[in-house]
Structures are given as C-alpha cells and as structure tokens.
Amino acid sequence: MARKVIIAGNWKMNKTATEAKVLVEELKAKVKDITSVEIVVCPPFTSIDAAVKAAAGSNVKVGAQNIHWAENGAFTGEISAQMLKDAGVEYVIIGHSERRQYFGETDETVNKRLKAALAAGLKPIVCIGELLDEREGGHTQKVLFTQLEGGLSGITGEQMEGIVIAYEPVWAIGTGKTATPEMAEETHCYIRQQLGDMFGQEVAGKIRIQYGGSMKADNAASLVAQKNIDGGLIGGASLKADSFADLIRNSIK
Ligand code: PEP
Question: What's this model's pTM, rounded to 2 decimal places?
Fold first, then answer.
C-alpha cells in the first residue's frame, strides 16, 4: 500500500491569530485541488483556534507544536491533549530539536507526550535527528537508534501505524543546509530498518517518515522522490502561502 505524502508546516513562534487566519485562507485557496498530499499547518497555541476556523471544510489540517503528558493539573504554561483535541487539532509535533535543545526535552518526555497524544486520539509527528558533531563523528545511526528506542518505548505496532516520524538532521534546520536527497534517503532507509526490527516489516512499511531541514519548493521534489521519504516537516518555507503551496505541489509523487 502506498504511503500518502504528508507535508506539515511548523510555524514555530510565528504568526498571531490574525496573521494565522490570513495565511490559512491564502493557503487553502492555493492547494484546494490537491488530494494526493496530506497538508498540515502547526501554529503556536494562541493561533490554533483561528487556524482551525479558517481551515474548516478544506483539505488543510491543523496540528500543535507540543503537548503535555498530564491530563490536567498544576503545570503552569502547559497544554493537555484534551485541550488540543477540543480546539480541533488533529496532529501534534513531539520532540522537535528546538524543544530538546532549549526546553530540556528528552526521549523519556517524548515518550510520555506520545502516549498522551495517542490516548486522546491525536496523530503524533515524532521528531528525531542528529547534531552536526554527531554526524561528523560517525554517530548518526547510534543517535537515531537511541531516540527511536526511548521515544517509542511501549508503543504497539498498531499504534505505530498512525505515528509519523520526522527525521530532521539538526544541522539542516533553519541553516539553509539541506541533506542531499541521497544522504537523506540513506538515513530514512536506516530508520525504516530499525522500525522493522522494532515493530515488524509490515508495520514499518506503513509508517510515514518525513524529512525536515531547510526543505523548500525547489528541493522538495528531489527529496520526496526518494523511496523512503514520505513528505516533509517545514519551518521557514511554511510561513508564506506562496512558497508553502509551491512546496506542496512539488511534493506530489
Ligand atoms: C523545522 O523547524 O522543523 C524545520 C525543518 O525548519 P526549517 O525548514 O526552517 O529548516
């Protein structure tokens, strides 16, 4: 069974609610004919409601950028799975490298957030990826193995089929340096092999693995053309309707 390409825009800490409404309205008009790519935008929490309302009835879905694992309680500043669900969110990014780098995210907290998302019926996008010195030191596979093992601990094969993995080499995020399609494919292939060892080949063959890291309209086609690359998690290029719509169109396999 072919895996449907998924392109998700991670807006990070950009776009007010007013700006989110405009961006989603522009985007949905530009991509309304596209059915072969799943399209997701992930605004900051305060802009989710505006994005959900603007995207209603279109082929643009809305995701969040983080989630807390507790159902509710004394966790100042945090947002629960149920709150996201109630706000109309469908996807949630978990373990982005910026969360790992600046906010102390670990494989253990990734795993807790992942379980909370699944329990609430949210679709998780779990981010993994190596730092530049880890790649240069030849440790990429070991780093990815550890992130997969820890982040996906206790997850069943059935649950895994609904989880998207985003492979984002940290050295390529927001730097303009993209992994070559061949380099990315080699790593995606390794990730799928590991998923096969963990969950069986049949499940691994169904899991969508996105690439992320300076993906743009002009390099999307060559990346997504690779056998094991099933879409992209996009930062900078998702902030303008034109560039994001072009990227989505160029990702049609
Ligand atoms: C990201 O934030 O996940 C990302 C890939 O950013 P960029 O596309 O800007 O490199």
Answer: 0.98
